């Protein structure tokens, strides 16, 4: 089975995670795909293939004769999809791309325009897997799952290719920020690993944002508007004042590369109470801490203006930049670069404007840079992945595991 065939199968499973859930995994439906993946690993012949009580899937490919003393390498991907765009009833099709706009949904007038997505110019002559414009595709990260499984299966089918022991781990809840929380590193038994969860083919990622969330609750005083003078404190207006105080040029729409940001994710409320959810990101640790201070100071200012307790500002760290944990192991990065080049792909070091399971795993003791999947425009209806990238990335992983 090819990586493309696997991918098209996996995206038929609805596996959205839920950031507000208190269960593990955050949605029970992730376990449906998890059970399927565990059976697939078992049928391939991997040792110990199973899904644990938390929805994590494990399996181990034994080392070839003579390679038993190689460090165990882990390949990791996640099965869940982002919760804010539906991943249910994905209707994928393969487009032989000759250039220009791609009509995703004629009836609804949903078009992926070449003028708005300049990366399409690089895809002429390839076969793009796209959606019908009503759901995301799921390449983040079912493409990574398909590439890992196909690479491991290739090694099984070609015993003449030497390799060390390989640990496979597929996680739930990465999109909810909890994908690494229940990985059993002792059971995994790896010296280092790679998440396969990146974007365009060839990207090698070992720097990511430092990340925090700021949950803001604003308590207002609601009085009949006819009798509100000097009495009403409109929580929505205070929320608007708070938003205006956050540096507007430092939103995601105005930043790139190593530039950090403040991002307002959700807002709701009325005169009595308003709630805002922000995320705070920066690669630089000092700038990251300064951003959290800015948010806290805005809350303090508004409490001074409207009274103590008006603004509750709960700021919690989510993950840290993995760079400091990966760079002491340059051989891991060199091995990935060599694998890309062996597959005819020039690697490009990319700073992640986000995070991966690898960030948390690196700080838990498993150095774990992130490799490309080949996909584009994750988390939205314009997501796509070239069929050629799925197959090329599988080849990269084979070279990675064999060291050839």
Residue runs with pLDDT of under 50 for 5 or more positions = none
Oligomeric assembly = single chain
Order of helices and strands: HHEEEEEEEHEHEEEHEEHEHHEHEEH
The number of distinct helices, counting runs of at least 4 residues, comes to: 10
- For the largest sheet, list the strands in their spatial order: 1-2-8-3-9-16-10-15
> What distance lies between the first and last C-alpha atoms, to the nearest angstrom?
23 Å
**Rg:** 23 Å
Can you count the beta strands? Answer: 17
Strand content: 15-25%
Overall geometry: globular
pLDDT average, as an integer?
Answer: 96
Structural class designation: alpha+beta
Percent in helix: 25-40%
Largest sheet: 8 strands, mixed
3D architecture notes:
The protein has 404 residues and is α+β, with helices and mostly antiparallel strands. The chain has ten helices and 17 strands. It has helices at 3-10, 30-44, 139-157, 185-188, 235-245, 285-306, 323-326, 330-342, 357-363, 387-402; strands at residues 47-51, 57-61, 73-78, 93-96, 102-105, 110-112, 127-130, 166-171, 192-198, 203-207, 210-219, 261-269, 273-282, 311-319, 348-351, 370-372, 385-386. The strands form four sheets. The protein has an eight-stranded mixed β-sheet, with helices on both faces. Strands 12-13-11-14 form a four-stranded antiparallel β-sheet, with helices on one face. The longest helix is centred in the last third of the chain and has 22 residues, at 285-306. The model has no long low-confidence stretch (mean pLDDT 96).
């Amino acid at each position: 089975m090819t990586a493309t065939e696997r991918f098209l199968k996996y995206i038929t499973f609805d596996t959205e995670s839920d950031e507000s859930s208190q269960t593990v995994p955050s949605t029970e439906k992730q376990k449906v795909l998890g059970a399927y993946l565990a059976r697939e690993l078992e049928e391939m012949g991997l040792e110990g293939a199973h899904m644990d009580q938390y929805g994590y899937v494990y399996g181990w490919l034994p080392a070839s004769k003579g390679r038993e003393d190689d460090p165990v390498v882990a390949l990791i991907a996640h099965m869940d999809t982002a919760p804010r765009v539906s991943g249910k009833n994905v209707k994928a099709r393969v487009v032989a791309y000759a250039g220009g706009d791609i009509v995703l949904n004629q009836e609804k007038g949903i078009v992926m325009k070449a003028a708005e997505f300049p990366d399409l110019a690089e895809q002429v002559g390839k076969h793009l897997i796209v959606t019908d414009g009503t759901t995301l595709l799921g390449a983040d990260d079912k493409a990574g799952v398909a590439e890992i499984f196909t690479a491991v299966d290739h090694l099984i089918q070609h015993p003449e290719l030497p390799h060390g022991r390989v640990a496979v781990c597929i996680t739930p809840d990465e999109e909810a920020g909890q994908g690494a929380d229940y990985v059993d590193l002792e059971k995994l038994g790896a010296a280092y690993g790679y998440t396969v969860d990146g974007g365009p083919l060839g990207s090698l990622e070992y720097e990511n944002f430092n990340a925090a969330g700021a949950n803001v609750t604003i308590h207002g005083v609601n009085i009949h508007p006819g009798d509100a003078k000097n009495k009403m404190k409109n929580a929505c207006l205070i929320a608007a004042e708070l938003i205006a105080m956050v540096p507007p040029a430092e939103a995601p729409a105005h930043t790139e590369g190593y530039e950090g940001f403040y991002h307002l994710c959700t807002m709701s409320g009325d005169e009595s109470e308003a709630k805002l959810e922000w995320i705070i990101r920066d690669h630089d640790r000092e700038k990251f801490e300064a951003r959290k201070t800015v948010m806290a100071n805005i809350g303090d200012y508004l409490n001074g203006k409207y009274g103590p307790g008006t603004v509750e500002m709960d700021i919690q760290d989510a993950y840290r930049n993995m760079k400091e944990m990966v760079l002491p192991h340059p051989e891991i990065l060199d091995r990935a670069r060599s694998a890309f080049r062996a597959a005819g792909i020039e690697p490009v070091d990319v700073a992640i404007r986000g995070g991966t399971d690898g960030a948390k795993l690196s700080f838990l003791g498993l150095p774990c840079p992130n490799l490309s999947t080949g996909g584009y425009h994750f988390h939205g209806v314009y997501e796509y992945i070239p069929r050629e990238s799925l197959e090329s990335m599988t080849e990269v992983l084979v070279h990675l595991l064999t060291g050839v």
